[in-house]
Amino acid sequence: MKKYVCEFIxxxxxVLLGCGSAAIAGGTxxxxxxxxxxxxxxxxxxxxxxxxxxxxxxxxxxLAMLISKKMTVKDFCWYVxxxxxxxxxxxxxxQLIINSTDLVGxxxxxxxxxxxxxxxxxLGGALLVEIIATCIFVLxxxxxTHDEKYEGVAGLVIGLVLTLIHIVVIPLTxxxxxxxxxxxxxxxxxxxxxxxxxxxxxxxxxxAAIAAYLWKFLAKED
Length: 222
Description:
Helices cover 77% and strands 0% of the residues. By secondary structure, the chain is an all-alpha fold. The longest helix is centred in the first third of the chain and has 52 residues, at 2-53.
């Protein structure tokens, strides 16, 4: 149960602080600031709850761990439940905070393509970008957590990789690479963001699966 509670907390913090940076101070922080907010949230949680749950805080990461046989089906299911609930809690608190301000139409950091993309990226491009970005992110996680000698720097590496991905992908789709992080804001925002959220659930899961099978091939001894 402690593992599931940790996953709830970790995803709550990621959505509250990461999406919060975009929704509340995106105009001031810019792409770089938002990217670091997401990355630093992961770093903070990795060193807070990593020893208990592994700090997946992302159904795509949990799927990769399941494929890699690093967790059971039961744990995978409960991890995803905890992550989604944590994301909704984070988005809910963020909405309450925004409702107490003069901010309007912030979007809660929801993802999107087409008219919702800052550069007008279409459906096909968004699908490709999110698959590749998630694959890179998950591949880095599998690599840095493969050997215990990297345990001390794993959280920092993962956070920096997520930051790098956000720097490139925020203008394209707002950066998902995490179905839970995308689902909750989209539900609260509704409208077109909600109608497009399927892509930000499917693409990260595909990218994570590709990364898991690719890592199994690369890490396998001849």
